[in-house]
Design goal:
The protein has 391 residues and is an alpha+beta fold. The protein is 35% helix and 20% strand. It contains 13 helices and twelve strands. The chain has helices at 26-41, 66-73, 91-105, 138-143, 151-161, 166-185, 219-223, 255-261, 286-297, 314-324, 329-333, 342-345, 352-367, and strands spanning 4-11, 15-16, 50-54, 82-85, 110-118, 196-200, 203-207, 244-254, 267-276, 306-309, 371-378, 382-390. Strands 1, 2, 3, 4, 5, 8, 9, 10, 11 and 12 form a ten-stranded mixed sheet that branches. The chain has a two-stranded antiparallel ribbon with strand order 6-7. Helix 1 (26-41) crosses helix 2, helix 3 packs across helix 13 (352-367) and helix 5 runs parallel beside helix 10 (314-324). The longest helix has 20 residues, at 166-185.
Length: 391
Amino acid sequence: MTNAVIVDAVRTPGGRRNGKLKDWHPADLAAHALKALEERNGLDPAIVDDVVMGCVMQVGEQALNIGRNAVLAAGWPETVPATTVDRQCGSSQQALHFAAQGVISGAYDVAVAAGVEVMTRTPMGASIVKDMGLPFPQSMMDRYNSFLPPQGIGAEMIAEEFGLTRDDLDAFGAESQQRAARATAEGRFEREIIPTPYTIDGTTEMMTADEGIREGTTIETLAALKPAFKEDGMITAGNSSQISDGASAVLVMSEEKAAELGLTPRARFHSFAVAGTDPVTMLKGPIPVTEKILAKSGLSIDDIDLFEVNEAFAPVVLAWAKTYGGDDVDKLLARTNVNGGAIALGHPLGCSGTKLMSTLLNELERTGGRYGLQTMCEGGGLANATIIERI
């Protein structure tokens, strides 16, 4: 069977809502990531068999197959096809699966998986147009007793189910910020972040670091924040992912094609899984999908050197860790999101899957680890999981 390998992975810095990336058209920002893959690897884009791009709010500037629009905006040949996929927060992780699986099947020799979301310009919920009806049919509402709450309420329910306290959530949020600040100071993101221009007061400058990191964050500072979804709730802006802007891309090809082109693979795809869970709590998918991918891979939780579990909300990661951490949850968390996560670095929806993969790949290389597992919860009660093996 053909091995699918990662040759390179890049991402823009994460931009705050209304921050430095706010003036970028999403297709241009995605094109910026595509061009970085081309330039860094001496890639002739004409050989790319397909570009698979994740994007969640496919409306307005992100409508009409933004993957194709990004290919054309990048100046790539018109012969390069592209498509756009939506598996909610895991959209570009699913794009990565499709690209790698295409290579493994022999359908592709070279593919790019990418993702983009400029949430400043195309906000969350923009694709729901009230006078055109709601996405949930009555049959679905009846199935769940007309109770399909927003994700924040689902996160509150998970925190209660797993016995998590406000202090637990705030401690996790503060740790995410501290890890991200340390990683930035140590230059851990330098290989994955592509400098991205922005204009301020008529002057163009280069953005080279994530904008959402808040140095000096402590449990005490987060404890002062008010609950965001329930008056007596535990979920706040400080223990939730940040609304942000960004794009990312991963160059995938067969091992044979990489050798032919003189490119050095950095990791191979080991295993894939996708799972569904209830759409009410919605965010527990990383738990069953981790069990599923470990069974498929033949690996145990102890075989995995590093984990990236998307920090949509702190309870998502903590519930997952309590499930798989056994008697030493802290030991598992020490290998999880070691450079911080979406609470500090942002969660630009459709971008996040390939964004996390760029971080996982670089950290495996930095630490000498062999296996990395990435998973994330997704709207509607879904989750993807991917295991890569560093080469």
